[in-house]
Design brief:
The chain is of the alpha+beta class. It is built from 19 helices and 19 strands. It has a domain of about 260 residues. It is about 35% helix and about 15% strand. The strands form four sheets. It has a seven-stranded antiparallel sheet with strand order 1-18-17-13-12-9-8. Strands 7-4-3-11-10-2-19 form a seven-stranded antiparallel sheet, covered by helices on one side. The longest helix has 21 residues.
Length: about 575
């Protein structure tokens, strides 16, 4: 006899038994016969599975997961931010949805500069002025109108229950909550629910009654329950308190946009990813094209030669990103040039892998006529074979650190993803120029790279990660880990990672990435090695030859794979 737990029963179990990080036990890939969901939090993954078991499709599950993450993963899950979604139907139809934040109508190019024209860094990072117009709620409504099957209200009920009844926080969340108490107190006149006198401990129950009421308005009224009425009034009031500039008109005029995905070939694989204003799809495809002629499988995972080829391709692609990528509604992005296989391969053919190319010697290509690491990503494949890859963010961890008083949710600090001043790096060290300059109603450039891969016309992989500027290179590595180095889904996301982004001129490496002998060889030939902490939190679903869904949830966080 099959036992099916209702969402309320699952919620009770998770509250009764504090959710623990399962980093030490997540060593083997899970496999599911029908459907799979991977998110940054166990409860959000369970919400997605519950929706699928009730007959919902991948889009229904994605909407429910998005709102659930806004409750259980407040550092990146959101209704006050935005993101991108790539969708593939079981018939092979592909779509991408842009619900990236927009600059407010009164934004202007020099709004974060002092009288001498120098950037005032904290203005674009903290407080209400750092916030762009949120897109998540509009994006979810747009996805539901086009592709949803279950009633809208039913997709918000799990998130409402989580906010009202509370949930047991994980060890990692307790640590993060405590680390942010000072900044939350500094930037909020009335302490939000996350602020309290005694430290947070693993297993403490986090209840969010104001957020529950906000979600209820969205459930009852759709996107109007966020962009108009009481919630909009609360957002604008928060702007006035904190010298922000989002207006009622900015909120009511926001729209999510369906765009044609970036699609191209890497050997026998079709890569489907996000177009501008994400730089992810273009950069990812260019990276794969750049290394296509190298014998990576023969050289091996993180071998000396493999790393050189990947780093030199990253150096050149990120230089182009800094110059040519921006909101296509405001700037003509040379997509065909940047994703031309011949161009990318001929450029790499001139590279000497025996010696590092200084980034100062690499400039963006000139064509005729012409992003927090605290993002979050989730992957879903439903029983019918429809697939969703969705990345959403507030930008920095907990965004602007401003909770909308009376509404209980965080605002993003996505304005920092614009080029505050040409040549000045953003939060993640990324450079930009006029293509990504601030302008009213413009969407800021992003590195988010939700991606779906086909093999010989059939669904092969659903992959993505948070990680700011490291997103693109992480997905790049995740795909190669499977198709070149023979890893399974879990191995592909657990494997140590490295990153290069043109400037600063260094290879960022996780603790266990790139063995000491290889590091020494690279440094001898001019490569600078920079040791850093974790890079991203990748999720990956692989469709196996037998039709089963194999999952990989990143052990760097509380990420969790579920299915049935």
């Amino acid at each position: 006899m099959k036992i099916r737990l209702s969402f309320s029963a699952i919620l009770f179990l998770f509250i009764s038994c504090a959710v623990q990080s399962n980093k030490s036990t997540r060593t083997a890939a899970k496999e599911f016969n029908n459907a799979a969901v991977i998110t940054a939090h166990p409860l959000a993954s369970q919400v997605g599975v519950e929706i699928l078991q009730k007959g919902g499709n991948a889009i229904d599950a994605a909407i429910a997961v998005q709102f659930a993450l806004a409750v259980v993963y407040p550092n990146a899950g959101n209704i006050g931010g935005g993101g991108f979604m790539v969708y593939r139907s079981n018939q092979g139809d592909i779509l991408s949805l842009d619900f990236r934040e927009k600059a407010p109508g009164s934004a202007h190019r020099d709004m974060y500069l002092d009288n001498q024209g120098n950037p005032i860094t904290d203005l674009s990072l903290y407080g209400s002025l750092a916030a762009g117009v949120p897109g998540s709620v509009a994006g979810m409504e747009e996805a539901h109108k086009k592709l949803g099957s279950l009633p809208w209200r039913s997709l918000l009920n799990p998130a409402i229950a989580l906010a009202e009844k509370g949930f047991a926080i994980t060890e990692q969340q307790a640590k993060e909550f405590n680390e942010h108490q000072a900044i939350f107190r500094k930037l909020n006149q009335k302490n939000p629910a996350i602020v309290r006198e005694k430290p947070w401990n693993t297993g403490d129950i986090f209840v969010q009654n104001q957020l529950k009421e906000t979600l209820q308005r969205i459930a009852d009224q759709g996107a109007k329950g966020f962009y108009e009425g009481k919630t909009a009034d609360l957002i604008v009031a928060e702007m006035k308190r904190g010298n922000g500039i989002i207006s009622h008109a900015d909120l009511s005029n926001y729209n999510a946009v369906w765009r044609a995905p970036i699609a191209g070939q890497y050997k026998n694989y079709k890569i489907i990813s996000m177009p501008p204003p994400s730089s992810g799809g273009i950069a990812l495809l260019a990276l794969l094209q750049s290394v296509e002629n190298y014998p990576l499988a023969k050289w091996g995972f993180q071998s000396d030669s493999t790393i050189r080829a990947m780093v030199e391709s990253e150096r050149r692609v990120y230089a182009d990103r800094a110059t040519h990528l921006g909101d296509p509604d405001f700037y003509t992005v040379p997509v065909e040039n940047l994703t031309d296989r011949k161009f990318n391969q001929e450029r790499m053919a001139k590279v000497n892998l025996q010696q590092a190319t200084p980034s100062s010697a690499v400039q963006a290509t000139k064509f005729p006529g012409y992003e927090s690491e605290e993002t979050t990503h989730f992957c879903i494949v439903d029983k019918a074979g429809n697939a969703v890859s969705l990345t959403t963010t507030l930008n920095g961890s907990y965004g602007s650190c401003v909770w909308v008083e009376g509404a209980g949710f965080l605002l993003n600090n996505e304005m920092d993803d614009f080029s505050v001043k040409p040549g000045t790096p953003n939060l993640y060290g990324l450079l930009g120029g006029k293509a990504n300059a601030i302008a009213p109603n413009k969407r800021m450039l992003s590195a988010m790279s939700p991606t779906i891969v086909e093999e010989n016309g059939k669904l092969k992989m659903v992959i993505g990660t948070p990680g700011g500027s490291t997103i693109i290179t992480s997905v790049f590595q995740g795909i190669l880990n499977v198709v070149e180095f023979g890893m399974d889904a879990q191995e592909s996301v657990s494997a140590p990672r490295f990153h290069h982004q043109w400037k600063p001129d260094r290879i960022d490496v996780e603790e266990h990435a790139v063995n000491p002998t290889t590091r020494e060889s690279l440094e001898k030939d001019g490569y600078s090695i920079y040791k850093r902490g974790n890079i991203g939190r990748m999720e990956n679903i692989l469709v196996l030859p037998n039709g089963k869904l194999q999952t990989g949830a990143d052990p760097r966080g509380d990420d969790f794979a579920a299915g049935y």
